Amino acid sequence: MSTKTGIHPNQLSESHDECMAAEKFAEIYDAYYKRVYKYICYRIDNHYAAEEVCSHVFEAVIAKYNRFSPEKASFEVWLFAIARNAVTDYFRSQKKRAAFSLSSILNLALPKSSPEDIVIRDDRHAALFRALAKLSDKERNIIGMKYAAGLKNAEIAELLGVSGSNIGVVLYRCLKKLQKELEKGGFRHEE
């Protein structure tokens, strides 16, 4: 049984050849919605658009469920491949490159602040966003999968078709680049 979702991999493919039952969809939706939404929101930095893209992801899950093959990849990897493709489609439809942002996730996680705290936080976020903009799309995508979607290195590696150790190295280098950019911009981590 998966510790994160409570769904056993075999349960996902029981009615594999049939149309997805409403109960099965509800189970998958309840187990994965928050992580998929956080990943999408992390990538596109727009709550409304993230909700729309997330709905497209789950529509695709229903439409493509009969093509899911547990022999090829785990359900989670398959699902996040759909999410990644939906984000790519969103950017194509916008015909622009979006800034990579954590603001929506941070707004959900952080308690309500005073106006002074909001100004300080916004300055820090702006510095983080500028540093994130210096990373490649691939690096931002990996950071999004790791920290917004909560995927493990092995799951990201399977999704991208690289080794787990490669993902670890890329993450380490990305974090070092971010740290260097933030320090160059005068940001200092306060304990």
Brief descriptors of the model:
191 residues, 9 helices, 69% helix, disordered N terminus
Describe the structure in brief:
With 191 residues, the protein is an all-alpha fold.
Structure description:
The protein contains nine helices and no strands. It has 191 residues and is mainly α. Residues 1-6, 12-18 and 97-101 have low confidence and may be disordered.
> Helical region count?
9
End-to-end gap: 38 Å
Going by helix content, strand content and strand pairing, the class is: mainly alpha
Per DSSP E runs of 2 or more residues, the count of β-strands stands at: 0
The helix content is 55-70%
Strand content: under 5%
Q: What string gives the helices and strands in order?
A: HHHHHHHHH
What's the multimeric state?
Answer: single chain
Show unreliable segments: 1-6, 12-18, 97-101
Main beta-sheet annotation = none
List the helices and strands and how they pair.
Layout: H1 9-12, H2 22-44, H3 47-64, H4 75-94, H5 103-109, H6 115-133, H7 137-148, H8 153-160, H9 164-184
Helix pairs in contact: 2-3, 2-4, 2-7, 3-4, 4-8, 6-9, 8-9
